[in-house]
Amino acid sequence: MKATSIALCRVSTAKQRTEGNSLEAQHERVYNAAATLDAPIEKFWSLNISSRKGKNFNRTDLREMLAYAKKHKQVKFIIVDEADRFMRSFEEFF
């Protein structure tokens, strides 16, 4: 079974939307990472919301990603452009 990936791109501020970290820029970088890993992206989450510290456990996108990966065993990678796009607080990260 070929390994695949899922990806998350997220912006939370107007500055991110316009200065180098836009959703489009993140999309390009996560697709490049998937190509490097030889793990095509089979599902993609793209969000325009903030991730406030302490609120990560209830994020719908993270719950959907976990459920998707559990159901689709070929998913071996979750690709994000930068770690804080996945989760703001590193204490909650793991």
Supply the key terms.
alpha/beta, 94 residues, 3 strands, 23% strand
What secondary-structure arrangement, pairings included, does this model have?
Layout: E1 4-11, H1 14-18, H2 23-37, E2 41-48, H3 60-71, E3 75-80, H4 83-86, H5 90-93
Parallel strand pairs: 1-2, 1-3
Q: Please tell me what the overall shape is.
A: flat
Kindly estimate the percentage of residues that lie in beta strands according to DSSP. Answer: 15-25%
Which spans of ≥5 residues are poorly predicted at pLDDT below 50? none
SSE arrangement, N to C: EHHEHEHH
Task: Tell me what you see in this structure.
There is one protein chain. By secondary structure, this protein is an alpha/beta fold. It is 43% helix and 23% strand. The chain has helices spanning 14-18, 23-37, 60-71, 83-86, 90-93; strands at residues 4-11, 41-48, 75-80. Strands 2-1-3 form a three-stranded parallel sheet, sandwiched between helices. It is flat and about 40 Å long. The chain starts with a strand and ends with a helix.
Offer a concise description of the structure:
With 94 residues, the chain is α/β, with parallel strands linked by helices. The protein has five helices and three strands.
